[in-house]
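Following up on my earlier message about BIS(adenosine)-5'-pentaphosphate. Here are the inputs again, as you asked, copied directly from the submission form:
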Amino acid sequence: MRLVLVGPPGAGKGTQAKFLAYHFKIPHISTGDIFRANVAVKSSLGVKAKNFMDAGDLVPDAVTIAMVRDRLAHHNAKRGYLLDGFPRTVPQAEALTNTVTDLGTQLDAVLELRLDDEEVVRRLSGRRTCHGCGRVWHTELDKPEVEGICDACGGELFQRDDDEPETVRRRLEVYREQTAPLVDYYADAHLLRTIDAYGSVDSVTARGIDALEQAAAT
Ligand code: AP5
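Thanks, got it. Here's what our run produced:
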């Protein structure tokens, strides 16, 4: 399966991507995670991306598209993948269409997670991420047993710099202006499946699997 996850910041894309990728036995490719890993080691890609990320803006298309094109050519993406956070602009979506076509493949479905701004702010203000394994937690909604420590690997949890309230507001604006048009783009391509992202993590995963299995069957 070749899948794309789309939705506002904090909708639960990263959380769901891990379960969906496991279920469909495909790699989870998150452009946000790739950028953050590069920022952490101060690579030239990380240096280019950092200021945009800190401001809540998108990293320029040319940089992002080249990075994803390389990643999709990797051997472990040959039999499928779940893209999380890409595409985020119409030019990125067009580049993805060209890349999958050049590779002799096609997308199977685009899953949209829907959530309102109030819930986005609540989810992002309490988000904590594990330094060790990248597992995402929440201070109220999905707490680890011991505050600040990951249940899965014992790693220390941290708060992302771009989860400051002002940056979250900017990320929501950017989503509305640049990413929301992809919903119509993929509806026109008959690839879009939309689910409600409210409710427990498990219930959203079940809805996502159901929607994607239906898409695969058509
Ligand atoms: P990225 O990392 O992709 O951030 P995002 O899209 O803003 O999404 P988030 O990671 O903030 O949220 P999410 O939907 O994954 O939610 P999560 O599962 O963590 O991108 C970061 C930056 O990188 C961008 O701003 C940009 O600068 C750059 N970038 C990345 N891709 C790019 C691209 N293609 N082009 C250009 N620039 C790009 O969940 C949030 C919280 O809610 C967690 O605490 C979680 O525990 C909790 N939660 C999740 N689900 C539930 C539930 N069902 N119930 C209760 N709590 C829940």
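One observation from looking it over: The CA atoms of residues 70 and 99 lie 10 Å apart. Hope that helps, and feel free to reply on this thread.
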